[in-house]
Amino acid sequence: MHQETSRFWRAMGRASAGALLFVLPLLMTMEMWELGFYLDRLKIALLLVVLLPLLVGLSYFSGFKHTLDLWEDAIDALTAWVVGALLVIGILVLLAIVKPVDSFDAMAGKAILLTIPASIGAVIASKQLGQKDNGDDDVVCASYGGELFIMAAGALLLALNVAPTEEMVLIAYKMSVWHALLLSVFTLAIMHAMVYMLAFRGTEAGPDALGHGPVFYSFTIAGYAVALLVSAYVLWTFGRFEGSGLELNIMSSTVLAFPAGVGAAVSRLVL
Amino acid sequence: MDEHAQHQQQPLAPAGSGDSHMALLLERWVAAAGAVLVVASLGYLLYQGLLGDHSPPDIAITVDAIDRSGADYLVRFTAANNGSETAAQVRIVGTLTPAAGPPEEAEVTLDYIPGRSSATGGLFFRGNPGEDELELRATGYQNP
């Protein structure tokens, strides 16, 4: 009887698949390798510090095992980190992105930076890949804070995927203030449509219980604010704010808040 | 001990107790490895960020090989960055000065040389670098 051990290995396999799904686009993005060696080490360290509670929280809401206590969630988060790190290192070597001539610092920077999205993918793998064998109801009823947390995680995931590229700032250069304004209205509209459709999964009230107004205020606007903040944080982390003025920073945050906002709105379905 | 294991693995488990104990051990070991990895990563990053040296790029070029390449000569080189900071768009200029006549220049731009790392490239010359005086140097870089 190896039921329990095989269940463990299956969970690991699922985690690896999830990590792969989320990290592959970034592994194959040149900017991500470059950021790995020149990014301020303290910024990467801060990202790691932000990531850990995020992983624990994600594990609580949708881990690759359904867990209830904090200790188990912490274990899941750490497991996700191992799975992500091994996968990232393996693929970096396989794709000849790290080479023996690189310094240890350059290699470590790349690996640590890429392990961040990989570990997020590993944690949410079960939900993504539809773990149904437990047969239990896998929706955890989230409080309002929990809802915002899930939205922040979704925003971060999408933001991480596009923020490393130079296009974020390039788009901001191309846009006028009016474009930016229109973009934020458009983002809000899309988010509201998604939030309204998905708003009530796992909560007590059905869509009919609340009107558009309250949903807009408590989810759409709040979600957009979360997406903007996450965008600004990610852009700052990747050094996209260096040497640019406040106006450009706000513009590029607005650009990134578009995908981040979509991620935030949809996260409540996906995560 | 057995009871403890069963408790941790509660959702489904009529499995053998040795097996569920094994699964629990595996789980704990992987998590412990994760804790070590996270702490090591964080410690390393903080050490590098706070105490690591932040010296500017210092590019040293060595010639690896000189080969014939059609009508030209190919000079292959390694550019090592001995500083700790990354240099981007590193311009390498090679000058070949024959005993008589004007000097010949060739240049190439290397995308990146991370700190304490190296990059390789090649330059083509009409004249024979084996006979004439060859000088390779980095003339500039960009901060990434």
Would you give an account of this structure?
The complex is a heterodimer of chains A (271) and B (144). Chain A has 271 residues and is mostly helical. Helix content of chain A is 76%, strand content 0%. Chain A has 10 helices and no strands. The radius of gyration of chain A is 19 Å and the shape is flat. Chain B has 2 domains: 2-50, no CATH class; 59-142, Immunoglobulins (Immunoglobulin-like), CATH 2.60.40.10. Chain B contains 2 helices and 6 strands. With 144 residues, chain B is α+β, with helices and mostly antiparallel strands. The radius of gyration of chain B is 28 Å and the shape is elongated. Helix content of chain B is 28%, strand content 42%. In chain B, a hairpin with a 6-residue loop joins β3 and β4 (104-113). Chain A binds chain B through residues 1-5, 7-8, 12, 34, 37-38, 40-42, 44-45, 48-49, 52, 66, 72, 74-82, 85, 101-103, 105-106, 108, 112, 115, 134, 136, and chain B through 8-9, 11-16, 19-20, 22-24, 26-28, 30-35, 37-38, 41-42, 44-46, 48-50, 52, 84-86, 88, 112, 114-120, 144.
Secondary structure layout:
The complex is a heterodimer of chains A (271) and B (144).
Chain A: H1 3-27, H2 30-38, H3 41-62, H4 70-94, H5 104-128, H6 144-162, H7 167-174, H8 177-198, H9 212-237, H10 246-270
Chain B: H1 2-8, H2 17-50, E1 59-69, E2 72-81, E3 87-97, E4 104-113, E5 118-125, E6 133-142
Antiparallel strand pairs in B: 1-2, 2-5, 3-4, 3-6
Helix pairs in contact in B: 1-2
